[in-house]
Specification:
With 326 residues, the protein is an alpha/beta fold. The chain is built from 11 helices and 13 strands. It binds nicotinamide-adenine-dinucleotide (NAD).
Amino acid sequence: MKKKVLVTGSEGFIGSHLVEGLLRKKYNVTALVLYNSFSDIGWLKNIKKNKKLKIVFGDLTSFDLIKNISRNCEKIFHLGAQISIPYSYKSPDAFLNNNVKGTINILQAAKINKVKKVIVTSTSEVYGSAIYTPMDENHPMNAQSPYSASKISADKFSESFALSFDLPVIIARPFNNYGPRQSTRAIIPTIIRQLLSNSKINLGNINTSRDFVFVEDTVDAIIRLSNSKYKNAEVFNICSGRSIKVSEIVKLISKMLKKKSEIVIESKRRRPKKSEVNLLLGSNKKIKNKIKWKPKTNFKAGLEKTIKWFQKENNIKLYPTTDYNL
Ligand SMILES: NC(=O)c1ccc[n+]([C@@H]2O[C@H](COP(=O)([O-])OP(=O)(O)OC[C@H]3O[C@@H](n4cnc5c(N)ncnc54)[C@H](O)[C@@H]3O)[C@@H](O)[C@H]2O)c1
């Protein structure tokens, strides 16, 4: 029988897909959902009831709770974090508390409970804009936003726990993800959502380029990493090795939806100039060579799946507005 695993950020975009992936593989999943007084379980609502899924409300910043729920867990998949870069300009301390303190709590609990593998989810934002391409795991880190600074710090604490206490931790570093259930704060959902109701779409900087991976491929990479022999805070990029400009994505989605689009640039959607990450283009050589992972979904096929999901009435109604929010 597969042992128990803990997933943090389980009700979020990537976390909910990961929970589904783990249940398909017959793991017993304890899913941490950020406590709220509405008993809202986020995207876990979309997942069929399953005896192997146990939902726990709580907060990463509460050490006692994290220690209790990770007891007898074989693995921890740590995805819980504040992820909105615009919100990180307004409330950097929330990023320190949730992302840094939250990760330290996970590491401490894993150490006490002798957890066999901890996967800490990093982000390509820790690199800042590319100094060279493709960006491998040795690319310098550059904290261009408080979000990035908090994730760099979380990665470094993970490294320190591996070096100081021999904690078996791996740092999974996804580049930009896309797919069903993503928030319209992210670029692909905002383009799709706006184009489904208007031909005019409001965007920030359309000249930035990103390296996109379909969410189910990221889930596959994360699960494979958790089964691998690697530890010592070894870092693995999860990326496609290609990048595409936002303006090109707009053209592609407009064509797929058979809609003309008119782009309106809104300054409130732009990052401050020096905080803007102009180019992310990763190297997936290491993850390909060491754990035989490569993305299965090409960009167009992934976009088709994402658009189809957003077009369903039950899904689009969960995104009632095309307004900008943090
Ligand atoms: N989405 C991407 O493109 C992307 C790219 C690279 C890395 N990542 C990383 O992947 C992880 C998941 O991202 P996502 O896109 O699914 O984001 P998301 O916002 O959909 O999910 C994050 C979840 O973490 C939870 N959370 C935040 N603070 C918490 C706390 N104190 N206690 C308990 N739960 C808390 C939130 O409630 C949310 O459901 C994050 O660590 C993010 O940094 C995401």
